[in-house]
Each structure stands twice: as C-alpha cells, then as structure tokens.
Amino acid sequence: MQNENLIQELATLTSEQQNPVSKQLDELDSLAIVTLMNQQDAQVSTAIADILPQVAKAVDLITQSFQQNGRLIYVGAGTSGRLGVLDASECPPTFGVSDQQVIGLIAGGKEAMFKAQEGAEDSPTLAKEELEALKLSANDTLVGIAASGRTPYVIGALEYGNAIGSTTIAISCNRDSPIAQEAQLALTPVVGPEVLAGSTRLKSGTAQKLILNMLSTAAMVRMGKCYENYMVDLKASNLKLKARSLRILMQLTDCTQLEAESLLKAANGQLKTAILMAMTSLDVEQAQTNLEQADGHLKTAIQNALTHS
After folding, report:
1. Is 216 exposed, middle or buried, given 0-12, 13-18 or 19+ CB atoms closer than 10 A?
2. Catalytic site residue from 4, 27, 90, 130
C-alpha cells in the first residue's frame, strides 16, 4: 500500500514525467544527446528568472540572520544535500567566514557525500536530531532543498525550524510541494521534465546549484565581503589564493608586488585591512578599528577614513 501511494504521488510530479522531446533518447548518437541536453538546460535560467523576486527576499532573510550572528543551514538528501554541502564548504575560503556560519547537512552524514545511504532521506526525525545537535536557533535561516519537494528528511527539518522560530526557506522544482507549503518562503523554479526521466541531478540540480550560488554570494556581498567585485575577505589558504590576494591588492592600489607582500604581512594576511592601509595610510590597528566601525564594509571604511583625515 505504501509503495502504491508513493507511485501515485510521483506520477503527479513534473520532475518525474517523461519528457516528450527526449523520448527517442536511446536512439541518438553522442552529439545529438548532448545537443538535446544543452537545449533543455537553457530552460533553467528562464525558470529562475521567473522567481528572482523571491530569491532576493531569501537573500534579505539570510542577511538578517547574519546580522544577528545567525547561521545559514542547508538541509537535503542525495544530489540536493550534496549541493548544499558544496556551497557551504566554499564559503570559508571565498569569504573568510567560519565553517560554522554556513553549514550543509545531508541525510546519511558525510558518508552520503560519496555513496548513497539507503533510507536516510525517509526519516523525518533524523534532521531534527542533527539540528538539535547544532543548537538551531531563531536567529538561523534554514534552507530545505529537495527537487521533488517531498523528501521526509527535509520536511522534518523545516517543521523543526518553524517550531524553533528559525527562518525557513524551501527550494524545490515542483509547484505546491510539501516543503514549499511548510516553509515561510518557497523558491520553486519549475524546469520541466528531465531529459532522462526522473533524473533530477540534471536540470533540477542545475537550478538548485544556481540558486544556492545566488543565496550565499548575494548575502555575503550584502555583509561587506566584497569591494567593487573583488573578494576582499578571501582566506589565503593555498598558493593560488595567496597569489590572488596579492593580485587584488596590486590592482586596487597600484602598489608593487613587494609593497603588496609587505602590506599583507603587516595586516596579518587580511586582504581587506591591507587595502584600507594602502588607500588611507592608516596603520593596522587603525584600519581594523575603521573596518569594525563600518561593519566590515571596505568602501564605507575608506570613505570614513578619508573624510576624517
């Protein structure tokens, strides 16, 4: 009976339908297959364009959480969970934030990143237990990700988030999904049936990835993590990022490489501080104080320093 109900439920989902355009997929050669996939992928950007006002609202809510020392927590299973973990893991090196500010939870834990953990996504209580362990609070924003919009693990997370008073957001690719109804804000890019029927790692996964890019990047920009369009709060944790820090500093201030290296050393490797020092002649302590007073917004700190010089 349970299987029969699930079959009937899946039959109603757009993401599970057979795509008439790819009905002869198994008869196509390689070029025809990838051409068809590329044509279908073009629908993703349009689907997201239709919901940009809601995406912007989600960015505002996440920014409010950050301003209240809250966190952004992604919750998902399978491909959706992996995409959340991926986006979270990229935030510390890109924006210089703690690995506890943006967190990705995937049903089945770390092992599920590399191998499917059977049944983990079917538990509505598992996510609640993991969020309790994280001490989820009313200051946090919880983003539930599920292409189908019906994953019990994600539903359970959103129910708990609502009970705690967290901000809850749902990302799904089917209209009027259970997670959309559970969340305070729903982001629903309807990309249509997949080229490979039901394989939501394709268009649905691409849509989710693009939206996650927007949520984390735009919220970090709102928090002052960039200057112009440079990532000035990056964490120089490898040779490439160290070279990028030097290059950005040289581009923004017209200093030499030796001068850039000296400034970064004086600023304890903090690129934003080094830029402010170079542009205003402040020492490291003054620069750090000015940045704190400007809530980390470099352009504001520069303007304040030049106004009072």
Report:
1. buried
2. 90
Instruction: Report pLDDT digits (tens) over 65-124.
Output: 999 999 999 999 999 999 999 999 999 999 999 999 999 999 988 888 888 766 778 788
Q: Which residues contact 208 (CB under 8 A, 6 or more apart)?
A: 79, 80, 83, 145, 147, 171, 173
- To the query of whether residue 4 is one of the catalytic residues in this protein, the response is no
- How far is Cα 262 from Cα 258, in angstroms, rounded to an integer? 6
pLDDT digits (tens, 9 = 90+) for 147-193: 999 999 999 999 999 999 999 999 999 999 999 999 999 999 999 99
Phi, psi (deg, nearest 5) at residue 44: -65, -45
Give every CB contact of residue 14 below 8 A, 6+ residues apart in sequence. 173, 174, 175, 190, 192, 193
| DSSP-based three-state secondary structure for 206 | helix
Query: For residue 111, what is the DSSP state?
Result: G
Which has the closest alpha carbon to 168: 141, 128, 134, 129?
141
Concerning whether 121 is annotated as a catalytic residue, the answer is: yes
Burial 116-140 (b: 16+ CB within 10 A, else e): ebeebbebbebbbebbeeeebeebb
Which residue in the list 16, 121, 182, 194 is annotated as catalytic? 121
Domains defined along the chain, listed by start: 10-222 (3.40.50.10490), 239-307 (1.10.8.1080)
